[in-house]
Amino acid sequence: MKKLAQEQVKAEFDAALQRSPLLGRPGFLIRRLHQIHCGLFLDETQGHDVTPVQYSLLTTLSMIGETDQITLANEIGLERTSVAEVIARLEKKGLLLRKQSTADRRVKLVKLSRKGQYLLKKLETKVQKAHERTVEALPEEDRALFILQLIRLVEANNDIGSAPFKLDLTK
């Protein structure tokens, strides 16, 4: 049975490569799946003017509470300059509050506003639906394995790139 499954996988993979050699490239597929997920996310959250990156930042702030931009950048695996831009947009929308740290006047602290907390609660089921739609083409019994394989790839390569993701949000 296992041999048959491996042969079926190889045949399906070879057929995909016949359709396009790009389908054999992990980077292309990851980028394309990200584009698809962003489209699904925006479709599900229509009218709320929030992107997946903004939602990740808001969600992380809801878990860790008030923090500085550098810590927040490390928590979500995004460059500090990008985080600063996202924070400015979210603050302009009234979803975040920023203030100067009393311990270090050079540091700005950021936290969710009530409006930001409300938006997160309101979007929770919509965002979950976007996540489900992203993987719905896979058999239900394969979805957790697919996500686990993505986790393995991220964890194995986390230190590569300009903005590693802090893997343990409890510390």
Tell me briefly what this model is.
With 171 residues, this protein is mainly alpha-helical. It has 7 helices and 3 strands. The chain is elongated, with a radius of gyration of 19 Å.
What report would you give on this structure?
The chain is mainly α and 171 residues long. It has one domain: Winged helix-like DNA-binding domain superfamily/Winged helix DNA-binding domain (Arc Repressor Mutant, subunit A). It has helices at residues 2-19, 26-44, 52-64, 69-76, 80-92, 114-135, 140-157; strands at 67-68, 96-100, 108-112. Helix 2 crosses helix 6 and helix 4 (69-76) crosses helix 5. The longest helix has 22 residues, at 114-135. It is elongated, with a radius of gyration of 19 Å. The mean pLDDT is 92.
Question: Key terms for this structure?
Answer:
7% strand; 7 helices; mainly alpha; single chain; three-stranded antiparallel β-sheet; Arc Repressor Mutant, subunit A; 171 residues; 65% helix
